[in-house]
Design goal:
The chain contains six helices and no strands. The protein is mostly helical. Residues 211-227 have a biased composition (Pro residues).
Length: 227
């Protein structure tokens, strides 16, 4: 949530500035409901999305990992199917490794072919049956893991959308609050200055210790040696 972190740092400051000055003017006191509500709602949405991000990453990693494992299992058995089942078209098997539905369908087709492998006596071949079982198990796991990843991705996207919506409401109220403070206190007053977006990356006594830390200064790239 790199776009929202500045607003997240400004929200707690705005609440403290509001608390300090609401008794000085009715024009400031009126902000207690709209600005206070907007700031708290934004912080809550930001916090919820941030807390869910770790789970989202785990689910996405597990989904990708299960797909990679299935693709590998498909690839190691394709040469054997080519030898034992020459009439089976392998050209499209595993050709879309990032599309869960396609890869799982291909895996099931390959497993079905392996189950058709027969020895010279016409009996089922043990290695082929075992390979088919292994592919089927990995396909089932991939289906479960990618379904969970898709659900987590949808949930995270929804949370981020809520953050953006809450930020828009808060930013609008903060802009109005700053305009009132400028008229009341003057643009040089510390409580006005600390609410400017350009000051969000600076440390301040009103910062929320649980909020995002200010960004580290950018270290210039070293000058390349002259050739």
């Amino acid at each position: 949530m790199s776009v929202q972190w500045k607003s997240r740092r400004l929200a707690p400051r705005a609440l403290k500035v509001l608390e300090r000055h609401k008794g000085s003017s009715p024009a400031v006191a009126v902000f207690e409901a709209p600005l206070g509500t907007a700031a708290r709602a934004f912080v809550a949405a930001y916090t919820e999305a941030g807390a869910y991000k770790a789970r989202w990453r785990v689910e996405m990693d597990e989904g990708r990992g299960s797909m990679l494992a299935l693709k590998k299992e498909i690839d190691v058995w394709k040469p054997h199917v080519a030898r034992e089942r020459p009439g089976f078209d392998l050209a499209g098997i595993g050709d879309k490794p990032t599309v869960p539905e396609d890869l799982i369908e291909d895996a099931q087709a390959l497993a079905d072919e392996l189950r058709e492998v027969r020895g010279a006596d016409g009996a089922t071949v043990a290695w082929a049956a075992a390979a088919a079982t292994s592919i089927t198990e990995k396909a089932s796991r991939a289906e479960n893991e990618t379904d969970e990843a898709a659900a987590a991705d949808a949930r995270y996207s929804s949370l981020l959308s809520q953050v953006r919506e809450a930020q828009a409401v808060f930013d609008a109220e903060l802009s109005r609050f700053r305009a009132t403070l400028r008229s009341l206190l003057g643009s040089s007053h510390p409580d006005f200055q600390k609410l400017r977006v350009s000051r969000a990356s600076s440390r301040d006594g009103d910062d929320d210790p649980t909020g995002p830390a200010p960004s580290d200064p950018v270290t210039p790239a070293p000058t390349p040696p002259r050739v």
